[in-house]
Write a sequence for this structure.
């Protein structure tokens, strides 16, 4: 059974998983081409692409760079978005209220996804940051409501349970929760499908022939750490591979944890042939530890990460990983909020978007026969001898 077809349920109740389909290279076929795609294809920054598109007169771009950007735009079929609605006296607004924006690129990506969807309906997006301040958060919500926004997206940078401010319960406009959830299911919720992501990462290693698969987790008080481990264990169980607690090491999302825990794993009497790191930063440390030991990636040990950070594509070899769907989550939140303006429901099931797989060059079949497989072979041989 393909893990993309699995419906995941957790302690918070049933959820709806959205996704599926094959991921080819860096992009999924049929997905909207973004400025990020153009920048990646042209080998430049998004700012450079923006300057070329807007033909900014005060900024000089070399002819060669401009040509690369225009060629990438043509090849990918990129079309800059424009609002479908003519400007009106009062701009239609949607507020997105984050606990933190400046500390993580994920928030910026989610806001840009929200902007894309908002522009299609003639709305602009107003972004706020509250730092979870008990006094300033209510004032921020009041300010957004005072601006006459058509909807509020209440968001957190870390997937977690929240207590919804009373002002949002009392608001007479649609409210959607992005990357967070609350008791009562009173609002639509959009989350990343972390359990399915952990399953997908582990299943790719299993499909490559690995049976001795280790997992370096994130911090276990965080939803992402717990759910990626849950997906790892589910994939092993589905493939009838016994769970070995020695192969699970608790990390902290940092490069140093990936380095230290990889050394612990490789010192085992039967070390793993593949390692699933719960994020790309720990995968960087994993790479360092393996290379110090003279082990080749993926020839001796396969590695997969999570998050698709910028560094993942620049490692040697480039790291296979999964990408968090923050842009798609931002779009979904706005589209759902605008649909609620036409129709309200009572209770909402959480919706989870799949974390697409980005296949690169860090996974290969195991080089050596694994102990579990050897023991099976010996048992079969002994059985034939007795017969």
């Amino acid at each position: 059974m393909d893990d993309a077809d699995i419906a995941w349920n957790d302690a918070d109740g049933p959820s709806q998983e959205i996704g599926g389909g094959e991921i080819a290279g860096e992009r999924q076929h049929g997905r909207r081409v973004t400025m990020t795609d153009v920048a990646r294809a042209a080998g430049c920054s998004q700012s450079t692409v923006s300057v070329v598109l807007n033909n900014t007169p005060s900024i000089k771009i070399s002819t060669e760079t401009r040509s690369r950007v225009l060629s990438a735009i043509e090849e990918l079929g990129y079309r800059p978005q424009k609002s479908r609605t003519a400007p009106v006296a009062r701009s239609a607004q949607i507020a997105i209220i984050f606990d933190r924006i400046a500390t993580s690129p994920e928030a910026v990506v989610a806001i840009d996804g929200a902007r894309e969807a908002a522009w299609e309906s003639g709305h602009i997006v107003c972004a706020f940051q509250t730092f979870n301040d008990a006094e300033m958060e209510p004032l921020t919500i009041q300010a957004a409501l005072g601006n006459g926004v058509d909807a509020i997206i209440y968001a957190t940078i870390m997937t977690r349970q929240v207590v919804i401010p009373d002002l949002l319960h009392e608001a007479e406009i649609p409210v959607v929760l992005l990357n967070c959830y609350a008791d009562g299911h009173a609002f639509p919720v959009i989350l990343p499908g972390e359990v399915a992501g952990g399953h997908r990462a582990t299943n790719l290693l299993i499909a490559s022939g690995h049976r001795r698969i280790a997992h370096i987790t994130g911090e276990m008080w965080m939803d992402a750490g717990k759910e990626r481990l849950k997906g790892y264990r589910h994939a092993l169980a589905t493939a009838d591979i016994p769970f070995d607690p020695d192969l699970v090491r608790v990390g902290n999302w940092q490069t140093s944890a990936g380095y230290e825990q990889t050394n612990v794993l490789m010192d085992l009497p039967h070390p793993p042939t593949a390692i699933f790191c719960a994020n790309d930063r720990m995968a960087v440390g994993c790479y360092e530890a393996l290379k110090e030991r003279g082990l080749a990636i993926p020839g001796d040990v396969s590695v997969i990460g999570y998050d698709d950070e910028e560094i993942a594509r620049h490692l040697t070899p480039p790291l296979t990983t999964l990408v968090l769907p923050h842009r798609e989550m931002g779009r979904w939140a706005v589209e759902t909020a605008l649909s609620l303006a036409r129709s309200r429901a009572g209770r909402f099931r959480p919706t989870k978007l799949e974390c697409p797989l980005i296949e690169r060059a860090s996974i290969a079949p195991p080089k050596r026969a694994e102990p579990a497989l050897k023991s099976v072979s010996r048992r079969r041989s002994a059985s034939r001898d007795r017969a």
About this structure: The chain has a mean pLDDT of 86. The first strand starts at residue 9 and ends at 10.
